Amino acid sequence: MTEAAAPASAHGTEPHPLRAVVLAGGLTFEREVSLSSGTQVWEELVRAGVDAEIRDADADLLPGLAASPADAVFIALHGATGEDGALRAVLDLAGVPYVGSPAAACRLAWDKPAAKSVVRSAGLMTPDWVALPHSTFRELGAGAVLDLMVARLGLPLMVKPASGGSALGVQKVSRLEELPAAMVSCFAYGDTVMVERFVEGVELALSVIDLGDGPQALPAVEIVPESGVFDYTSRYTPGLTEYHVPARIPEDVAARAAALAVQVHEELGLADLSRTDAIVTPDGEVHFLEVNVSPGLTETSMFPMAVETAGYELGEVLARLLARREASTAG
């Protein structure tokens, strides 16, 4: 890969290093993961020759960007702060270019039931689901509503917050008597819970990047959690999950999975980078689960695994994404 283009200096003659601000931290349940991602991004960018610094998304951010403008911002924030579109909308108001999907697309992707509806309407497969707010159970009676859910979706089920990342609050429910406690636990992370039919199969992380020639899927990462469920503990506890990249699936299935990830990226209006989570059933069908507009970028995250397996250097990929955003704004 070639190095990221540097913007011209104030005199228009001497180029200067691309100046980037990496946003990390935030005040969500995923703060520690975000700090880890942000540190990794900063280290990779510096290694690639970018003049980068890390900032938190706090009251000092906008004054700091105004006083010392960046050529572009890289958002390494996870959870609502970095993924629900609100921060990106503020950056748009401030005229600050950033890597990643626009605010409206992030709002759609952040709402898992809404994203699944769009994906299903596009003809892609996704497990059947029901999403309901806490008030519905309170007003109509939890027992009656849960019975209807099980009658509709069957068992086992996946219970997860309707928005959020890092698999926080995600649980597999195999027996009816486990469902109420799983719901209560899930509501700790949000007002709306999505209950989804559990699909048995090979879990994949499908990363997509767009370096200027349109979105392309990187090699699929196969996820094999020791517990059988890729929850928060399995993601962030060393040794509890095995990763295989490229995934151990037939070539035709890998091609269909890659096509699904690119189509999801396009149908939802995403930009620059994304990671789609999917399940491949024993008969080779690929089912969409959810999409992440701010995928993890820690040393053990799946997006960097895919980038490396594709033959890229992570720092150069990130630098090129930043340079494209700076150039598009300057143009």
UniProtKB/TrEMBL annotation:
The EC number on file is 6.3.2.4
Q: Briefly, what is this protein's role?
A: Cell wall formation.
Entry-linked InterPro entries:
ATP-grasp (IPR011761), ATP_grasp_subdomain_1 (IPR013815), D_ala_D_ala (IPR005905), Dala_Dala_lig_C (IPR011095), Dala_Dala_lig_N (IPR011127), PreATP-grasp_dom_sf (IPR016185)
**Predominant cellular place of this UniProt entry's protein:** cytoplasm
One GO MF annotation is:
ligase activity
**Name of the protein in question:** D-alanine--D-alanine ligase
Q: Which UniProt keywords apply?
A: ATP-binding, Cell shape, Cell wall biogenesis/degradation, Cytoplasm, Ligase, Nucleotide-binding, Peptidoglycan synthesis
Per UniProt, the enzyme's principal EC class comes to: ligase
Cell membrane in keyword set: no
Enzymatic reactions = 2 D-alanine + ATP = D-alanyl-D-alanine + ADP + phosphate + H(+)
- A Pfam family per the record: Dala_Dala_lig_C
Give the UniProt family note: Belongs to the D-alanine--D-alanine ligase family.
According to UniProt, this protein's pathway is: Cell wall biogenesis; peptidoglycan biosynthesis
State its location(s).
Answer: Cytoplasm
| Classification via NCBIfam families | PRK01372.1 (NF002378)
